[in-house]
TrEMBL record:
Domain of life, source organism: Eukaryota
Arrestin C-terminal-like domain: residues covered: 191-349
Pfam family, one: Arrestin_N
Example GO molecular function: G protein-coupled receptor binding
Name under which the protein is recorded: Phosrestin-2
Gene Ontology terms: cellular component: cytoplasm; rhabdomere
Similarity field: Belongs to the arrestin family.
Keywords: Sensory transduction, Vision
PANTHER family, per database record: ARRESTIN, PHOSRESTIN-2
Alphabetical list of SUPFAM superfamilies matching this protein: E set domains (SSF81296)
Length: 376
């Protein structure tokens, strides 16, 4: 049986270095991250008196490109992995993947494998949605594989450079967490009794595009009147580079007066449904989105899962979600608010990896030079 497998390919501007990689999404399993592996093919002229290096670059843009004046830069590059690929180190272990074995056999003696290991806690690929009048690269965290010729790992004098964008992604856990539930109460200084709001979600973990059911129970033991109920999903973005880089944005909301006014001594129980999706937030500047490859559509950013709270100091953007329920009591009564944390992510793909047989055929996707980073 012949099995087709996907291979991504990109050449340097002078055609001397060609990069082959089997996938562009690398999964963060919290305790470890999928290794980035592939093969480079060198022109025969480049096998003499030259060194070829490879790097995984995490690029964090935290300001608009058009605001960069007088040498000011709003971008930081973090080199998470770096090694010399050619000439290959003598003591390097050759633990090749099936894809690398097939590519080396197909490409010949001028092909050389590489494998990079990302450190745990590396930030996920996130893009902050630009405004309609913004130009240049959007703010956010991007990754790319960089292959170049030079005398050492910091040499940038040669023109032979290949940059190919990749993503670091997280998938939803296989098990649900505890069911979110909270009870808040409000008493009033000059009147007896209290107002009680109980909010419960049907589960903690939701997949993108899934409807969130908010169960609300209101017990009005005060002499105030509840005039309106509002439920919303808020996205929290923490740009850890800045001390005050936290903000929230409402990405789905529903307001109702059904069952209102809730008179003193009355009880109301109802369910409100919210669906946070990118389609209703297309024009919202600063909304966090999952990192993009090429110019394809994306979705709201997935929740960031951390192995420990200490990792909040890592380089990047941390995304979280909260369901908020608010009761409006009028100008004199004020408001009563309940909040519940929720996790929004993609499910882990269920497809099993294909087994590569000896007669497997490669489906190669070729990239133009203008698809990523013009530094070459």
């Amino acid at each position: 049986m012949v099995v087709n497998f996907k291979v991504f390919k990109k050449c340097s501007p002078n055609g001397k270095i060609t990069l082959y990689i089997g996938k562009r999404d690398f999964v963060d399993h919290i305790t470890l991250i999928d290794p980035v592996d592939g093969v480079i093919l060198l022109d025969s002229d480049y096998l003499h008196n030259r060194k070829i290096f490879g790097q995984i670059v995490c690029s964090f843009r935290y300001g608009r490109e058009e605001d960069e004046v007088m040498g000011l830069s709003f971008q930081k590059d973090l080199f998470l992995a770096s090694e010399q690929i050619y000439p290959p180190p003598e003591k390097r272990e050759q633990n090749l993947t099936k894809l690398q074995e097939r590519l080396l056999k197909k490409l010949g003696s001028n092909a050389f494998p590489f494998t990079f290991t990302l450190p745990p806690g590396s930030p996920s690929s996130v893009t902050l949605q630009p405004g309609s009048d913004d130009q240049g690269e959007p703010c956010g965290v991007q990754y790319y594989v960089k292959i170049f010729a030079g005398e050492n790992e910091t040499d940038r004098t040669h023109k032979s450079t290949v940059n190919l964008g990749i993503r670091k992604v997280q998938y939803a856990p296989s098990k649900q967490g505890r069911q979110p539930c909270t009870v808040v109460r409000k008493d009033f200084m000059l009147s007896p009794g209290e107002l009680e709001l109980e909010a419960t979600l049907d589960k903690q973990l939701y997949h993108h595009g899934e409807k969130i059911a908010v169960n609300i129970c209101i017990r009005n033991n005060s002499n105030k009147i509840v005039k309106k109920i509002k439920a919303m999903v808020q996205q929290g973005v923490d740009v850890v580079l800045f001390q005050n880089g936290q903000y929230r944005a409402t990405i789905a909301s529903l307001e109702t007066q059904e069952g209102c006014p809730i008179q003193p001594g009355s009880t109301l129980q109802k369910i409100m449904y919210l669906t946070p999706v990118i389609e209703s937030n297309k024009d919202r500047r600063g909304i966090a989105l999952d990192g993009k490859l090429k110019h394809e559509d994306t979705n709201l950013a997935s929740s960031t899962l951390l192995a420990s709270p200490d990792q909040r100091d890592a380089f990047g953007i941390i995304v979280s979600y909260t369901v908020k329920v608010k009761l409006y009591l009028g100008a004199l009564g004020g408001e009563l608010t309940a909040e519940l944390p929720v996790v929004l992510m993609h499910p882990k793909p269920s497809g099993k990896p294909k087994i590569l047989h000896a007669d497997s055929q490669a489906d190669v996707e070729m990239f133009r030079q203008d698809t990523i980073d013009q530094e070459c």
